[in-house]
Write a structure and sequence with these properties.
This protein has 9 helices and no strands. By secondary structure, the chain is mainly alpha-helical. Helix 1 packs parallel to helix 8 and helix 7 packs antiparallel against helix 8. The two termini are 16 Å apart.
């Protein structure tokens, strides 16, 4: 895989095929993100790491164990969900061992991440699109960066949409949905840059 293909695949995963704006995955952290960018970056980077780790573990398992035994049709979903949960719990355990005196705000995101559809969605997309391991790692890492970008965009928008000039009918979720639609439309403008 040459550098141009890696660059175009990364650009597409971050901007064009963004998990939130085009694949509709990762809405849970997207709509519950805080107004502070710091609290948007933490779950975004955690999802990026978990997506990449999940790809690194699940791709060989599917390719060398489930597919040769013709079990991927029957056990793929159950194995992927279980292993994504185990990877999330192992990452939480490792972070608690590495940073024992850190604040609990980092660890409060892990229960949400263990059931995050973006982590599982990346694994299924990699398998269904027949990516190799390098393409899968690039895709999962870039998709996590795209999710982080979406969280940062939404946190900056949330700072501005709490103004008193918004009508009561549009407060909270309706204005968030309108803002998300406008952000998705702006991301759609990147379509066609790489052919």
């Amino acid at each position: 895989m040459d550098l141009l293909k890696i660059t175009s695949a990364s650009f597409a995963a971050i901007f064009i095929n963004n998990f939130v704006f085009s694949r509709f995955l990762g809405f849970c952290p997207f709509f519950t993100v805080s107004k502070k960018p710091y609290f948007a970056v933490i779950p975004g980077l955690a999802v990026t790491v978990l997506m990449t780790l999940t790809c690194a573990v699940l791709y060989p398992l599917n390719h060398y164990v489930l597919a040769p035994m013709i079990l991927e049709k029957y056990l793929q979903t159950a194995v992927f969900v279980f292993l994504a949960y185990l990877i999330t719990q192992a990452a939480q355990f490792a972070m608690k061992r590495i940073m024992p005196y850190s604040s609990g705000e980092i660890f409060s995101y892990f229960p949400l991440l263990s059931s995050n559809c973006a982590v599982l969605g990346a694994a299924f997309i990699i398998i269904n699109e027949n990516y190799n391991i390098i393409q899968g790692l690039v895709f999962s890492f870039s998709s996590g960066i795209g999710l982080t970008l979406a969280l940062l965009m939404m946190s900056s928008v949330k700072e501005r949409i709490d103004s008193p000039h918004i009508p009561a009918a549009f407060k909270d979720l309706p204005i968030s949905l309108i803002s998300a639609a406008l952000m998705a439309l702006s991301m759609y403008g990147f379509t066609g840059i790489f052919k």
